[in-house]
Specification:
Blueprint lengths: L2 H26 L1 H25 L8 E4 L5 H12 L3 E6 L5 H7 L6 E5 L5 H14 L7 E4 L14 H11 L1 H17 L2 E5 L12 H21 L5 E7 L3 H4 L7 H14 L2 H7 L3 H13 L7 H12 L6 E4 L8 H8 L5 H12 L9
Parallel strand pairs: 1-2, 1-4, 2-3, 4-5, 5-6, 6-7
Helix pairs in contact: 1-2, 3-13, 5-7, 6-8, 10-12
């Protein structure tokens, strides 16, 4: 008798003996038996679901393009995905930046650093052509639209050019990159991962320019997700909360730049607006920003985990809202979750009382 036949016989005999042993118990204790079977069935279903959700994509021969890799989320994600086996093309605005140099020293050999300005058609096309030439048989598994800029300021103090500049990077840069890469992504039945933030779901005082672009990316992503479903392409939004300090957008090193932006707003502001809000309004707003920066999360890890899941998991959600902050709760994310349940007046009061810099009216 062959070994396989012998083992098969042993398994059959064991199952037969177990059935004989437990049959009287199930007959005598029907309710108990049904309860045990129900629990076993639920456990089996949960196990199957967990397996399906946790199934990871094989990184071999998978190319991921990430924008905004000079620092922050993009830099950390490029290193993470390279370490787990993906081929990563890291787009950096400045190839000579410290962050770009660190990526170039990656020991895996799977990380390619390119100069990439997502506001420039030629730069974007050059990046796409590089992927076609370097990986002709691989296509593009995932595009991570991460590059972004932030500038604060109330509507009356924010120049129209600032709205245009932020939208050109955060919104139109995302659209430009996505349109250029879609043929390669569709070929692989791959993914588009767009990084927005809580500001894509809730607009706070002094954040209108940033929120306008984030809301636009949310709308773009929703439409694209529906359109791409027929091609097997997934579109995922990752929405970080208060991670501004950890990304470098609002940490101690960034404060001089933020200070100069507020000084420029004050210099260019109409005298009538300064009289209405108070001459020290923008100075006080800068001080508020410095205080808020202290509440930011100290690590990027939760966002990088969410981004990695969006790239690597077999089954993914449409949105990942990631809590930040080093406080008890990430308050904007708390408001997002409760917005549909709260009366508008209560919701508005929570926003105003926690985030509005009050004007000191000196003229009416």
């Amino acid at each position: 008798m062959e070994v396989k036949q012998f083992l098969g016989l042993q398994v059959f005999e064991f199952a037969y003996l177990m059935a004989l042993a437990f049959l009287p118990f199930f007959v005598a204790q029907r309710e108990v038996g049904l309860s045990i079977l129900s629990v076993a069935f639920v456990y089996l279903v949960v196990s199957v679901i967990r397996f399906a959700i946790s199934r990871r994509v094989d990184p071999a021969n998978k190319v991921v393009l990430i924008t905004g890799c000079d620092s922050g989320f993009g830099h950390a994600l490029a290193r993470r995905l390279s370490s787990v086996g993906f081929t990563v093309v890291a787009g950096c605005l400045d190839k000579s930046s410290d962050g770009a140099q660190v990526l170039k020293s990656d020991a895996t050999g799977r990380l390619h650093v390119l100069q990439l300005d997502i506001t420039d058609d030629d730069s974007v096309n050059s990046c796409v052509n590089y992927i076609k030439e370097q990986f002709p048989s691989k296509g593009l598994w995932t595009l991570v639209n991460n590059a972004g800029v932030l500038q604060r300021g109330d509507v009356e103090f924010t120049p129209l050019d600032t709205y245009k500049k932020i939208a050109d990077v955060n919104l139109f840069g995302t659209i430009r990159m996505t349109k250029a890469c879609l043929p390669l992504i569709r070929r692989e039945k791959g993914r588009v991962v767009n990084v927005t933030g809580a500001t894509g779901r809730i607009s706070l005082p002094s954040m209108s320019a940033f929120s306008v672009s984030s809301y636009g990316v949310e709308a773009f992503s929703d439409a694209l997700r529906h359109e791409m479903q027929q091609f097997g392409v997934k579109v995922i939004l990752v929405e970080p909360g208060n991670f501004y300090g950890a990304t470098g957008l609002q940490n101690r090193a960034a404060l001089p730049q933020i200070r100069s932006e507020f000084d420029k707003m004050k210099e260019d502001a109409p005298e009538e607006a300064l009289q209405m809000y108070g001459q020290d309004y923008l100075d006080n707003q800068y001080k508020t920003v410095t205080e808020l920066s202290k509440s930011a999360a100290s690590t990027l890890a939760p966002v990088i985990d969410a981004l990695e899941s969006a790239v690597t998991q077999g089954r993914v959600g449409a949105r990942y809202l990631v809590d930040g902050s080093n406080q008890l709760t990430d308050f904007p994310n708390f408001l997002i979750r409760w917005e549909s349940w709260l009366p508008q007046q209560i919701f508005d009061n929570l926003v105003v009382n926690n985030y509005l810099q009050k004007a000191r009216i000196t003229s009416v």
